[in-house]
């Protein structure tokens, strides 16, 4: 082996964002109704009026989207109007019909700006803030409660194995009430970002058997028997299973999972299935390898099964953060009313009580296929943490869609800084869920159980600190302080004073 050969290493996560906003515009001969405040606002987009030609809504839309693309392209960010089969290799501009605006004095168009799919890196994150700040300083844009900001996190074209999906789903379930404090409270009940902790089948007490009885699996059940099943160290990635899902592959895979069979599954088209026998080593192998990912997941599963929440001894002292906090901890908001607005959709029933962390995580870890995890956590419209790419038909035929996990709870924003920070947080949560050693992973789940049960001091600032997102933790504390009154947040001391009142 060459000494200059690159060492194998984990690939960074891939991610992309969808930024929804409203762009305001006027004809070039129209006065600006906000002229008195124009000095404090970005320039309004102007479209030349040609009285000899009637421009349709679609014509105007193309003009606006091309102007946005021109700004991005001229500043080194390749951009184009959205194509029906996007490759996510450049910034793309397209409409989003869910965005609405009433009572505005000027013309407007809805915009969804999507980033290219990038490997997580400082430059890739910085491009998010650069692009949004560039547009918001060049043209007059705004957001309202119909605008969202979504982050997709994945591993390129590769589908996450069951072990990773279980971990990610468990962490997002456990952290959901705490992460929600970073966003406006109404996003939690919005039909297009509904809380998995309050509106999913799992939240409403459904078990695996309940969701399976209503599932729409393929006739051969290839997703639950094969593609979405566990992945052993040394096996081909899940993408190989998707490309090789004939019944001979499914049956050979099931043989490898028979009782007493622990070798990785291989299938040679010329020889058939193989147990993965490895030739004996003729040299000193050195120290033995550490536990495999499958062994670590088995350990986590065993620990979770033995946890009796009713007998947990809660921490006597608050979590001690690595970074010194600027102020007191924030308390977890009280469970608010179920806000049902005039949505033209049938909404899920809200769970009456919270089943807690470990009861849910135990059910998630009992799922034998990643599509079953999705079935436990889906909502009628869109959940705040969306695993749709792991539904049965997407597992079997993903098409051109990358198998990402979508974070939908963030509200639309014109702040490039917040957009960048939230993207970092989303990627960081997935990274921690997948790569954290079992003891650290379980420790975070325990802290989240303590916090959501009201038995210990722990908030989103602590969570980000504990999973290693130190800069994001500092920003989160400043954000909570900034929106404390608007979002009805309280310091722990304020909540305690309220509880002490006669």
Account of the protein in words:
- The protein has helices at residues 57-74, 122-138, 162-179, 196-199, 208-213, 222-227, 238-243, 247-256, 293-306, 357-365, 370-377, 392-396, 416-435, 438-452, 460-466, 470-482, 492-500; strands spanning 14-27, 45-47, 79-81, 91-94, 107-114, 118-119, 141-142, 149-154, 266-268, 272-274, 385-386, 405-407.
- It has 502 residues and is α+β, with helices and mostly antiparallel strands.
- It has two domains: 14-147, no CATH class; 162-212 and 295-500, no CATH class.
- Strands 1, 2, 3, 4, 5, 6, 7, 8, 11 and 12 form a ten-stranded mixed sheet that branches.
- A hairpin with a 3-residue loop joins strand 9 and strand 10.
- The longest helix is centred in the C-terminal third of the chain and has 20 residues, at 416-435.
- This is Amidoligase enzyme.
Quick take:
With 502 residues, the protein is an alpha+beta fold.
Element layout with pairings:
Blueprint: E1 14-27, E2 45-47, H1 57-74, E3 79-81, E4 91-94, E5 107-114, E6 118-119, H2 122-138, E7 141-142, E8 149-154, H3 162-179, H4 196-199, H5 208-213, H6 222-227, H7 238-243, H8 247-256, E9 266-268, E10 272-274, H9 293-306, H10 357-365, H11 370-377, E11 385-386, H12 392-396, E12 405-407, H13 416-435, H14 438-452, H15 460-466, H16 470-482, H17 492-500
Parallel strand pairs: 1-2, 3-4
Antiparallel strand pairs: 1-5, 1-6, 1-7, 1-8, 4-5, 8-12, 9-10, 11-12
Helix pairs in contact: 2-13, 3-10, 3-13, 3-14, 15-16
Region (Disordered): 272-293
Protein name: Amidoligase enzyme
InterPro entries: Amidoligase_2
